[in-house]
């Protein structure tokens, strides 16, 4: 077994590999760019080597710097993680030439499967079901349109060397093919250094299901069940689960056997994933093979009990697989949410900055019960950089049933506190309680269909509103008692405020009676006639300053994020973020007379929605534009974002030029 390995990656996957290496008694070497000098993976590793500037093309993507770091530290093997060099055939070849072991598949398998065009040809030869499409080189946008017309709409335009949703576009018309082709090529070039794309038929109402395979260097290959990754936004996976609610045992076996056949056809000898697009009728077609560890591998680990990183290391060291297909069993259900530094209330645009507070839910494992796992590469005080993927963490829960795993995930998300940047936890929390998601009736179009206008802030209603109001009243009661104990406040005379409270959720008012006895706050909601209803027990040991209120309401576990604000608190729960004020009756009477503030009108300005680089300005001053027309393209975190006109108008003045680096809300142009 290896004594020391180097991880040619960063962030959460580097930390993940380090954890398993520690467990196996293997020393680790981290590499880092200037932007990652204080990163968690650098802190966790036994050694760390600086490899260059922040841009990945000048650091993490330079093979010679990785090889040099191995020689400098004496690392015997390299784990590539995912992304970066993980699927570059040249990387393991360079390592082999230097006498260093690659913890991944052999270069031949990467060459056969890493290129999506060649992999489809190999899949067809191995008699794996494939989607109709054009696998040859596409010359230009006119050629792309011709191919798309022949295949029939809608079509998928996809980077041959792609992954992670980069360099991918769905087109429903000739015009969308032309634009999508050029955008996909540009993203592919920027992200992978390879601008080749291919086109295939897009299956309507599809599901994304993938099979985890594991092979060794002795010809053994097994599959470890499936993962459902249908909850996607812009072709980027958001939530994954294992197993899939769609598959039955027969379909699972058929998909698994095809995946193994394909892996054996290319002599696959590590962990890898064969991805399929599946119809609602359980029909399935080969999509691609990822010759690396997947981002979502934890859900497979939790339902199978197999540490995939450990298996990769053992296989690379020449060991035979210790498990056969008959030994693989799927136990319980696992759900993973990708926590990203992006603002769901601003069309999920990237958010960068410092993690002023980072308090993930406590990791735990209860035998036969619920497991909470948080794979992360950040820590409090760390910074989310513009240069890399905006992932903060992967939150994973495992339980005996799908419903229990989802409930555990919902509770864990509510207890996940991040401050200093915007993040997608409110959106993930809303998904966990969405009836369609919970029913398992999903497809890759789920988010687009259920949130056609994006994710917008809205006022809580019904049971959720009552729950938030009850917790707000309990928090206010604790605050009130604390204030009355401040030195010099009417010593010797207890101050008792009236028990009735008016709780304002934004401007919606809820009346309730409140009484506190230690950690127990009793609340009773008041009806329109002023009569209090059934009393509810709200129990928590929460203290001021703790960012998450964790307790029970009538015995049911509840977690909410609480942030103090002027004359109130801000509560986040199940996708709702609401400003809450708790008033006495006298205070409420005065508050009702206060005017409502009006936000400034920015309708005649195009503001940069995220920190990023201006790739192009598509209009000129004095130009008339129609709603939907492209105004500018801004690149952030390796993604190109097209900014379009929301309504018809005339461009008055352009304030930014191509090549400019802008902050969030920086002015790009004005309309007359």
Automatic annotation (TrEMBL):
InterPro entries: ATP-grasp, BC-like_N, Biotin_BS, Biotin_carboxylase_complex, Biotin_carboxylation_dom, Biotin_COase_C, Biotin_lipoyl, CPAse_ATP-bd
Alphabetized SUPFAM superfamilies for the sequence: Glutathione synthetase ATP-binding domain-like, PreATP-grasp domain, Rudiment single hybrid motif, Single hybrid motif
Protein name according to UniProt: propionyl-CoA carboxylase
Domain Lipoyl-binding: 596-672
Organism from which the protein derives: Tardiphaga alba
Pathway info: Metabolic intermediate metabolism; propanoyl-CoA degradation; succinyl-CoA from propanoyl-CoA: step 1/3
The keyword Membrane is annotated on this UniProt entry: no
Keywords, comma-separated and alphabetical: ATP-binding, Biotin, Ligase, Lipid degradation, Lipid metabolism, Magnesium, Manganese, Metal-binding, Nucleotide-binding
EC number(s) on file: 6.4.1.3
Keyword Manganese: yes
Catalytic activities: propanoyl-CoA + hydrogencarbonate + ATP = (S)-methylmalonyl-CoA + ADP + phosphate + H(+)
ATP-grasp domain boundaries: 120-317
């Amino acid at each position: 077994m290896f004594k020391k390995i180097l991880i040619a990656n960063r962030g959460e996957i580097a930390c993940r590999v380090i954890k398993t290496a520690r467990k196996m008694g293997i020393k680790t070497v981290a590499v880092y760019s200037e932007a990652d000098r204080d990163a968690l993976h650098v802190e966790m590793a036994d050694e760390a080597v600086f490899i260059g500037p922040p841009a990945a093309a000048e650091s993490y993507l330079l093979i010679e710097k990785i090889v040099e770091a191995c020689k400098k530290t004496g690392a015997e093997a390299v784990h590539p993680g995912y992304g970066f060099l993980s699927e570059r055939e040249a990387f393991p070849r360079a390592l082999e030439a230097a006498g260093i072991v690659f913890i991944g598949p052999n270069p031949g398998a990467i060459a056969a499967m890493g290129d999506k065009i060649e992999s489809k040809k190999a899949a067809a030869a191995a008699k794996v079901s494939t989607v109709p499409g054009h696998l040859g080189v596409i010359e230009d946008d006119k050629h792309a349109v011709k191919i798309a017309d022949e295949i029939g709409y809608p079509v998928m335009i996809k980077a041959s060397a792609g992954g992670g949703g980069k360099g991918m576009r769905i087109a429903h018309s000739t015009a969308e093919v032309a634009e999508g082709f050029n955008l996909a090529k540009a993203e592919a070039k920027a992200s992978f250094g390879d601008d080749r794309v291919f086109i295939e038929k897009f299956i309507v109402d599809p599901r994304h299901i993938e099979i985890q395979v594991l092979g060794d260097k002795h010809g053994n290959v097994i599959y470890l069940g499936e993962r459902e990754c249908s909850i996607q936004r812009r072709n980027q996976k958001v939530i994954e689960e294992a197993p899939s609610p769609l598959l039955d045992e027969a379909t699972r076996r058929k998909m698994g056997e095809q995946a193994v056949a394909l892996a054996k056809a290319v002599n696959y000898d590590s962990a890898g994933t064969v991805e399929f697009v599946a119809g609602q009728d359980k029909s399935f077609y080969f999509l691609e093979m990822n010759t690396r560890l997947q981002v979502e591998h934890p859900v497979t680990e939790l339902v199978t009990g197999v540490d995939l990183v450990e298996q990769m290391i053992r296989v690379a060291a020449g060991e035979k697989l210790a498990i056969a297909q008959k030994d693989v069993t799927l136990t319980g259900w696992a759900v993973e949410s990708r926590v990203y530094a992006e603002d769901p209330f601003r069309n999920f645009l990237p958010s960068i900055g410092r993690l002023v507070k980072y308090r993930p839910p406590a990791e735990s494992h209860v035998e036969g019960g619920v497991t909470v796992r948080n794979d992360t590469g950040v820590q409090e005080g760390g910074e989310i950089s513009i240069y890399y993927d905006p992932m903060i963490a992967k939150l994973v829960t495992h339980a005996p049933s799908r419903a229990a795993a989802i409930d555990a995930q919902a509770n864990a998300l509510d207890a996940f506190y991040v401050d200093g940047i915007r993040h997608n936890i409110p959106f993930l929390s809303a998904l966990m309680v969405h009836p369609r998601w919970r029913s398992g009736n999903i497809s890759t179009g789920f988010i687009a269909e259920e949130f056609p206008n994006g994710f917008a802030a809205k006022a809580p209603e019904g049971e959720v509103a009552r729950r938030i109001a009850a917790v707000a009243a309990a928090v206010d009661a604790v605050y009130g008692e604390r204030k009355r104990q401040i030195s010099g406040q009417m010593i010797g005379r207890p101050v008792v405020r009236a028990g009735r409270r008016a709780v304002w959720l934004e401007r919606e008012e809820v009346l309730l009676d409140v009484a506190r006895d230690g950690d127990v706050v009793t609340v009773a909601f008041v009806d329109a006639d002023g009569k209090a209803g059934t009393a509810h027990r709200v129990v928590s040991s929460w203290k001021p300053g703790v960012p998450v209120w964790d307790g029970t309401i009538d015995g049911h576990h509840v977690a909410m994020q609480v942030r103090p604000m002027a004359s109130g608190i801000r509560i986040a729960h199940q996708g709702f973020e609401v400003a809450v004020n708790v008033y006495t009756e006298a205070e409420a009477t005065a508050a009702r007379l206060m005017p409502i503030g009006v936000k400034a009108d920015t309708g005649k300005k195009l503001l940069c929605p995220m920190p990023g680089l201006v790739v192009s300005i598509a209009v000129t001053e004095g130009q008339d534009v129609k709603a939907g027309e492209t105004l500018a393209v801004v690149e952030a975190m390796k993604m190109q974002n097209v900014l379009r006109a929301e309504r018809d108008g005339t461009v008055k003045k352009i304030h930014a030029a191509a090549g400019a680096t802008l902050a969030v809300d920086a002015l790009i142009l004005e309309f007359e």
